[in-house]
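Sequence design from tokenized structure. All designs in this work follow the same two-part layout: the structure record, then the generated sequence. An example of the structure record is given first.
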């Protein structure tokens, strides 16, 4: 390569870098690209669940896999470009150096998630060729778990990139604002928290999340309460919006339901089931947050109450989906104290992570 061609390539790369970080409708082009790819990947993932359940698993290169990994490959390429093109001149409070490269922390996080997703693909192919279909492990099989954690990291990276650019603004009385007047950053952050809720719910619940006929005992709600409330409290505190928890549940609920209708119309016999019924618990958390703000004490009350509300709402929901009562009452009563402890620890974890994030913002 001649000196002139190197100079031209460098100039083109510099212009592309400037364009990627130029604001469009309140957010950098790079962030919009990340979010668009994540939307495509989530649709591919939902399609994939219906495909495998309905048609089995023939080859890796099926349409939903192609859709999912096309999005992942684009995000990996975008993250690699940002990392390779020195980002020292960006106004980002969390620029992180790794070896000779310096890039925003959120980009590094998304890059790591993409590497896990790409690495999980051949592992998944080998796993299925060796052990066949996942009839007992599902999302907890090693390749699926690695891939889901990779998707979780990509989502977290986008959230970090978003929230380091905009601090939550409380209302005039110091209390959280409602959902009116959302900025582009707020709206996209809530969208990403919806996807985070979807991923964490799937990872926590495994088969219980994707097949409603597995919801036959009273102990699986404990899995939902271990990390689900963490995400909901994080959504509230990083956006400063009362109602964020409910939105973070509503979007994936509507997305899964809508995709299910599309696949049913396409004659898929089995699709991903609707999520667990956590709306009453989310509304409860939003009511407490609107009243008491970002303190810790109210979490000690809201956590147990969220579990107490979740059990009857999910009991009724499982009954409706399955057409029969499937929970032994004695099991539910035995599980409830553990569920209350899990929910309390979960909301406290969400508040603690939000506090650590605010420290990162001030670095």
């Amino acid at each position: 390569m001649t000196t002139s061609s190197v100079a031209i390539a460098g100039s083109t790369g510099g212009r592309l870098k400037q364009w990627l970080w130029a604001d469009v409708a309140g957010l950098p082009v790079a962030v919009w690209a990340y979010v668009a790819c994540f939307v495509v990947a989530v649709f591919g993932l939902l399609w994939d669940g219906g495909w495998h359940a309905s048609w089995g698993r023939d080859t890796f290169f099926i349409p939903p896999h192609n859709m999912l990994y096309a999005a992942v490959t684009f995000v990996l390429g975008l993250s690699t470009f940002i990392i390779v093109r020195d980002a020292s001149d960006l106004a980002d409070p969390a620029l992180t150096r790794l070896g000779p490269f310096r890039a925003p922390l959120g980009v590094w996080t998304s890059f790591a998630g993409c590497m896990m997703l790409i690495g999980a693909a051949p592992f998944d192919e080998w796993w299925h060729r060796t052990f066949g279909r996942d009839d007992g492990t599902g999302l907890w099989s090693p390749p699926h778990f690695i891939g889901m954690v990779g998707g979780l990291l990509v989502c977290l990276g986008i959230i970090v990139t978003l929230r380091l650019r905009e601090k939550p603004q409380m209302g005039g009385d110091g209390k959280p604002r409602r959902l009116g007047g959302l900025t582009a950053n707020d709206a996209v952050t809530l969208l990403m928290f919806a996807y985070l809720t979807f991923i964490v719910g799937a990872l926590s619940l495994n088969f219980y999340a994707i097949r409603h006929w597995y919801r036959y005992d009273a102990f699986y709600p404990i899995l939902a309460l271990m990390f689900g409330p963490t995400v909901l409290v994080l959504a509230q505190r990083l956006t400063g919006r009362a109602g964020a928890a409910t939105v973070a549940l509503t979007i994936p609920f509507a997305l899964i339901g809508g995709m299910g209708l599309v696949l049913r119309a396409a004659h898929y016999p089995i699709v991903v089931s609707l999520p667990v019924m956590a709306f009453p618990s989310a509304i409860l958390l939003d009511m407490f947050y609107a009243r008491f703000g970002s303190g810790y004490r109210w979490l000690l009350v809201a956590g147990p109450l969220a579990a107490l509300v979740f059990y009857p709402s999910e009991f009724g929901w499982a009954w409706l989906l399955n057409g029969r009562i499937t929970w032994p009452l004695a099991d539910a009563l035995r599980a409830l104290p553990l569920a209350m402890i899990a929910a309390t620890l979960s909301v406290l974890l969400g508040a603690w992570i939000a506090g650590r994030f605010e420290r990162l913002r001030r670095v």
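The first helix runs from residue 3 to 20. We note this feature because it recurs in several other targets discussed in the main text.
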